[in-house]
Amino acid sequence: MFDEIEPGELAIARQSETWLLLDVREDWEREIVSLPDTINIPLGELVARTDEIPGDGKLAVLCHGGVRSAQAAGFLANRGRPLVFNVTGGIDRWATDVEPSLPRY
Protein backbone atom coordinates (compact mmCIF):
# COMPACT_ATOMS: atom_id res chain seq x y z
CA MET A 1 0.00 0.00 0.00
CA PHE A 2 1.17 3.54 -0.71
CA ASP A 3 0.19 6.94 0.63
CA GLU A 4 -0.83 10.13 -1.16
CA ILE A 5 0.86 13.49 -0.77
CA GLU A 6 -0.33 16.87 -1.99
CA PRO A 7 2.15 18.87 -4.09
CA GLY A 8 2.25 21.70 -1.55
CA GLU A 9 2.93 19.26 1.29
CA LEU A 10 5.76 17.68 -0.69
CA ALA A 11 7.31 21.04 -1.54
CA ILE A 12 7.39 21.94 2.16
CA ALA A 13 8.64 18.51 3.22
CA ARG A 14 11.49 18.61 0.69
CA GLN A 15 12.83 21.76 2.35
CA SER A 16 13.68 19.93 5.57
CA GLU A 17 13.71 16.21 4.67
CA THR A 18 15.42 14.09 2.06
CA TRP A 19 12.94 12.83 -0.52
CA LEU A 20 13.54 10.94 -3.73
CA LEU A 21 11.30 12.10 -6.57
CA LEU A 22 10.50 9.59 -9.32
CA ASP A 23 9.00 11.02 -12.50
CA VAL A 24 7.26 8.30 -14.55
CA ARG A 25 6.26 10.53 -17.48
CA GLU A 26 7.56 10.09 -21.01
CA ASP A 27 10.65 11.98 -22.24
CA TRP A 28 8.57 14.33 -24.41
CA GLU A 29 6.53 15.34 -21.36
CA ARG A 30 9.61 16.10 -19.30
CA GLU A 31 10.92 18.26 -22.16
CA ILE A 32 7.90 20.53 -21.62
CA VAL A 33 8.22 20.76 -17.86
CA SER A 34 10.16 18.95 -15.19
CA LEU A 35 11.33 19.34 -11.63
CA PRO A 36 14.99 19.32 -10.64
CA ASP A 37 16.60 16.39 -8.88
CA THR A 38 14.27 13.70 -10.18
CA ILE A 39 14.83 10.10 -11.18
CA ASN A 40 13.28 9.75 -14.64
CA ILE A 41 11.88 6.35 -15.56
CA PRO A 42 8.82 6.19 -17.84
CA LEU A 43 6.09 3.96 -16.42
CA GLY A 44 6.46 1.48 -19.29
CA GLU A 45 10.12 0.94 -18.36
CA LEU A 46 9.67 0.77 -14.58
CA VAL A 47 9.64 -3.03 -14.23
CA ALA A 48 12.96 -3.36 -16.06
CA ARG A 49 14.58 -0.36 -14.37
CA THR A 50 13.43 -0.63 -10.75
CA ASP A 51 17.00 -1.23 -9.61
CA GLU A 52 17.86 2.35 -10.64
CA ILE A 53 15.79 3.70 -7.74
CA PRO A 54 17.79 3.99 -4.52
CA GLY A 55 16.29 1.74 -1.89
CA ASP A 56 16.14 4.03 1.11
CA GLY A 57 14.20 7.11 2.10
CA LYS A 58 10.85 8.53 1.20
CA LEU A 59 9.89 8.20 -2.46
CA ALA A 60 7.37 10.52 -4.12
CA VAL A 61 6.13 9.37 -7.53
CA LEU A 62 5.00 11.98 -10.05
CA CYS A 63 3.33 11.96 -13.46
CA HIS A 64 1.12 14.45 -15.32
CA GLY A 65 -2.12 14.05 -13.36
CA GLY A 66 -1.54 11.35 -10.77
CA VAL A 67 -2.86 8.23 -12.52
CA ARG A 68 0.38 6.71 -13.85
CA SER A 69 2.21 7.66 -10.67
CA ALA A 70 -0.43 5.84 -8.61
CA GLN A 71 0.16 2.73 -10.74
CA ALA A 72 3.92 3.05 -10.24
CA ALA A 73 3.56 3.67 -6.50
CA GLY A 74 1.34 0.60 -6.17
CA PHE A 75 3.81 -1.52 -8.11
CA LEU A 76 6.73 -0.38 -5.96
CA ALA A 77 4.81 -0.81 -2.71
CA ASN A 78 3.76 -4.32 -3.75
CA ARG A 79 7.42 -5.14 -4.38
CA GLY A 80 8.18 -4.21 -0.78
CA ARG A 81 9.34 -0.63 -1.19
CA PRO A 82 8.51 1.25 2.04
CA LEU A 83 7.58 4.94 2.24
CA VAL A 84 6.09 5.33 -1.25
CA PHE A 85 3.85 8.34 -1.91
CA ASN A 86 1.79 9.27 -4.96
CA VAL A 87 1.83 13.00 -5.75
CA THR A 88 -1.86 13.82 -6.15
CA GLY A 89 -2.60 15.78 -9.29
CA GLY A 90 0.94 15.28 -10.60
CA ILE A 91 3.05 17.94 -12.25
CA ASP A 92 -0.09 19.69 -13.46
CA ARG A 93 -1.23 20.34 -9.90
CA TRP A 94 2.34 21.18 -8.87
CA ALA A 95 2.27 23.92 -11.51
CA THR A 96 -0.98 25.37 -10.16
CA ASP A 97 -0.35 24.97 -6.43
CA VAL A 98 3.42 25.30 -5.98
CA GLU A 99 5.07 26.89 -9.03
CA PRO A 100 2.53 28.76 -11.19
CA SER A 101 5.34 29.91 -13.51
CA LEU A 102 5.82 26.35 -14.81
CA PRO A 103 4.35 25.50 -18.20
CA ARG A 104 1.28 23.28 -18.29
CA TYR A 105 0.17 20.87 -20.99
Write structural notes for this entry.
This protein is an alpha/beta fold and 105 residues long. It has a single domain (3-97), classed as Oxidized Rhodanese, domain 1, CATH 3.40.250.10. It contains five helices and five strands. The protein has helices at 7-16, 27-32, 46-49, 67-78, 90-97; strands at 3-5, 19-23, 39-40, 58-62, 84-87. Strands 1-5-4-2-3 form a five-stranded parallel sheet. The longest helix has 12 residues, at 67-78.
Question: Quick summary of this structure?
Answer:
By secondary structure, the protein is α/β, with parallel strands linked by helices.
- What is the CATH level 1 assignment? Alpha Beta
Spatial ordering of strands, largest sheet: 1-5-4-2-3
The shape, in one word, is globular
- Name the poorly predicted regions: none
Quickly count the domains. 1
Q: Tell me the series of helices and strands, N- to C-terminal.
A: EHEHEHEHEH
Instruction: Name the CATH superfamily assignment.
Output: Rhodanese-like domain
Helical/strand content category: alpha/beta
Helix amount: 25-40%
Number of helices: 5
Strand content: 15-25%
Query: Any idea of the CATH topology?
Result: Oxidized Rhodanese, domain 1
Quaternary structure classification: single chain
Number of strands: 5
Q: Report the biggest beta sheet as strand number plus sense, adding barrel if it closes.
A: 5 strands, parallel
Topology:
Layout: E1 3-5, H1 7-16, E2 19-23, H2 27-32, E3 39-40, H3 46-49, E4 58-62, H4 67-78, E5 84-87, H5 90-97
Parallel strand pairs: 1-5, 2-3, 2-4, 4-5
